[in-house]
Amino acid sequence: MSELLKIIDEFRGECPCGKKHETAIRDIRIESGLVHRVGEILQANGFEKTLLLVADKNTFAAANGIMKSLEDFDVELKIYDFLRVSTMDHVREIEALISGKQISVLSVGTGSVNDTCRLAAARQNKKLCIFATAPSMDGFASYSAPIVDRGFKFSYDAKSPEVIIGDTKILAAAPAELKSAGFGDMIAKYIGLVDWQISALLTGEFYCERIAALTREAVDGLLEMADRVTVDDEYTAGKIFEALLKTGVGMSFAKNSRPASGSEHIIAHLLECVELRDGIIPNYHGDDVGVSTLKMLEYYNILSQRESIDARKEQVDWETVFGFYGTMQDDVKKLNFPVNVIDSVDPDDLKAKWSGIRKIIRSIPSYDECRTAMEKAGCKLTVQDIGKDEKLFADCIEFSPYMRHRLTLLRLKNMII
Q1: Of 56, 268, 310, 381, whose CB neighbour count within 10 A is largest?
Q2: Burial class of residue 230 (count of CB atoms within 10 Å of its CB; 0-12, 13-18, 19+)
Q3: Which pTM was predicted?
């Protein structure tokens, strides 16, 4: 049994946090040459004899040999030319291909291919296997899928796959820029954990120390491997993939993305929405997330230097907010009215708990430590590196807190004086 499956077994059942942790994951394989054993693994896990294999041309090419391993299955193919962003139209397309059939889904790729399949398979109650082609993100095991619908990116309740397969030979051969993007996505976990813990402190939101510790262990381990992230080495690729999966398993147990994403992800999602609106194909998600993480680390570090604060009720010029969002404003209104996530934060309580908040911020590596590690890993570091306009990036930082019904330290900015 793999280490990850042992972790899953240990987590199942009642937890001191008061929740009963469950996940759909039944099998995780991380070995060399697994592309030639995919059919065998699916059979062992009770997948239907008819499969829908979903990929894009790049990920399908990376998984060379997979069709040979599936010769005992009836395989239907859906190969996209290029799938950088998952939309609700893509989800409906996959749903139409599996609805009413005795069929399982095999997603070959990362990111958007998997997000599309996880939501479609969840809606049609089909078994799902993810065959990863690059260690470029951590959402393989997640129960949520970020999907763009009518120009607005929202995280939908989706499906954690029954089976996850990582062929270390293929993962090691993935483009260096994808590996660097995956590292940027992992460093973001530090901000996610800070935001989650602060929200729990101020609002009583569900928080699990065991899940947080699992995520922290994964990102700390990867931080130590920064200088090896882009090398073509199967052992390193397997370890990086394992670290990514640990954070995904954490999200799976939490049934949301709290253990792995915070203000930095929301900023990146807003950037992507604005670019899609303007007809621009977004960067790799991890690149935008990595730069947003550095911006948040810098801001959070500055806040942590303040020994005390004054606080007030949030004051928002909603007309300006809605003006920025434009055609997306109806979605933003739904997320902020009639119930606003910050309504439950009392200014006096925020002021009284500031020392605890400072301690939480200081529990993670500093901006300088993370930036140095990201530089070693070949990550993009600045707004210029990701080709963004400085004014647009600053606007996305300012207006992103209203894009999610989720408390983050950045959302508290308007309350802190």
Answers
A1: 268
A2: buried
A3: 0.91
Total of domains in the chain = 2
- For residue 53, give the 3-state DSSP assignment: strand
Residue range of the domain that includes 390: 258-414
pLDDT tens, residue by residue, 11-21: 877 899 988 88
* Integer angstrom CA distances of residue 251 from 14, 65, 87, 138, 240: 17, 31, 22, 9, 17
Would you call 323 exposed, middle or buried from its count of C-beta atoms within 10 A (0-12, 13-18, 19+)?
A: exposed
The CATH number linked to 97 is 3.40.50.1970
- 147/12 same-domain check: yes
Q: Residue 339 is part of a domain; what is its CATH number?
A: 1.20.1090
Whether 241 maps to a domain, the answer reads no
**Is residue 184 a part of any domain in this protein?**
no
Could you tell me if 166 and 280 lie in one domain? Answer: no
The residue from 143, 174, 205 where one domain ends is 174
Distance, CA of 240 to CA of 223 (rounded, Å) = 10
For CA atoms 73, 77, 82, 85, give the dihedral sign.
Answer: negative
Q: Cα(36)–Cα(66) distance, rounded to whole angstroms?
A: 6
Contact 230, 378 (CB under 8 A): yes
Q: Give the tens place of pLDDT for each residue, 193-230.
A: 999 999 999 999 999 999 999 999 999 999 999 999 99
Among residues 174, 206, 221, which one ends one of the domains? 174
* Helix (H), strand (E) at residue 338: none
In the three-class reduction of DSSP (H, G, I as helix; E, B as strand; rest coil), residue 152 is classed as strand
Answer yes or no: do 21 and 155 share one domain: yes
Residues 293, 191 contacting (CB under 8 angstroms): yes
Distant-in-sequence, close-in-space partners of 321: CB < 8 Å, separation ≥ 6 = 329, 332, 399, 402
- Give, as one character, the DSSP assignment of residue 138: S
* Average pLDDT across the chain, whole number: 94
Q: Which residue shows structure tokens 């009770």? A: 46
